[in-house]
Design a protein that fits this description.
By secondary structure, the protein is an alpha/beta fold. Helices cover 26% and strands 35% of the residues. A hairpin with a 5-residue loop joins strand 5 and strand 6.
């Protein structure tokens, strides 16, 4: 089995609903997504996936949709105010935990026919969550 891994750094903000801790407040992270692709065969170039393709598709999507944005639950009461202020948002149907953001990135990569095995989202230097199917 061949594995290819790429790390993508980005900054984002969020807060957690129905949570009793520091993360119930709006705050930000310098995050890192680690995308692992796997497959049994290589293409005619001897590659599972070209790193530049991962960068173009996944890193490009993260840059356009998640980087320097507030990732919030669509039902978060602060959404309407932030929209009025012109703040960049990315809204999801679940709580924007590290687990759910990792799955969000995984689902995006999978939808673009990349052979994604797992995505790990480093929320801090010491804390991360991984999603694999």
């Amino acid at each position: 089995m061949f594995l290819v891994t790429q790390e993508i750094e980005f900054c984002y903000g969020h807060r957690l609903l129905n949570y009793d801790g520091k993360c119930k407040h709006l705050h930000g992270h310098n995050g890192k997504a680690v995308i692992v692709l796997e497959g049994e065969t290589l293409d005619h170039r001897g590659m599972l996936v070209d790193f530049s393709d991962i960068k173009k598709h996944v890193a490009g999507w993260i840059d356009a949709n998640l980087d320097h944005r507030m990732i919030l639950n669509v039902d978060d009461p602060v959404v309407s105010y932030l929209k009025q202020q012109g703040e960049p948002l990315y809204l999801i149907d679940s709580n924007p935990t590290a687990e759910n953001i990792a799955k969000l990135i995984y689902d995006f990569a999978k939808s673009h026919q990349l052979p994604v095995a797992e995505v790990t989202l480093w929320e801090t230097f010491k804390s991360y969550a991984t999603y694999r199917d």
